[in-house]
Amino acid sequence: MKSKPIKQGDHMGKFPILTSSNDGNSAALKDILQLYVEEGQVIADVTYGKGVFWKDIDVDLYNFAASDIQTGVDFKK
Ligand SMILES: C[S@@+](CC[C@H](N)C(=O)[O-])C[C@H]1O[C@@H](n2cnc3c(N)ncnc32)[C@H](O)[C@@H]1O
After folding, report:
1. Could you tell me the distance, in angstroms and rounded to a whole number, from the CA of residue 46 to the centre of ligand 1?
2. Which of 31, 53, 58, 60 satisfies CB 3.0 to 4.6 Å to 2 for a cystine?
3. pTM to 2 decimals?
4. CA-based R_g, the chain, Å
5. Contact 4, 39 (CB under 8 A)
6. pLDDT of residue 21
7. CA–CA separation, 31 vs 3, rounded Å?
8. Cβ(49) – ligand 1 distance below 6 Å
């Protein structure tokens, strides 16, 4: 299930936050976004590949840009 990100700072004193995880990349990224990124903010994954890290995340909540060298964009340039 996709969850709506909490507003940055809204969690203060309301619930505990786990700061370590042994889940996979997608679950960890979801937690990271909830902690640090507000809805509408710009996110660029410049090594998007097949987007596996994003499979549990509703990228429509963000200003999301995906690129990869496989689609012609080398992040070193
Ligand atoms: C581990 S995958 C990234 C996983 C991805 N972010 C996801 O959500 O599944 C690494 C990716 O980096 C890309 N890559 C490697 N060198 C790059 C470069 N110089 N510029 C852009 N993409 C690059 C590869 O094509 C590959 O798709």
Report:
1. 7
2. 58
3. 0.80
4. 14
5. yes
6. 78
7. 10
8. yes
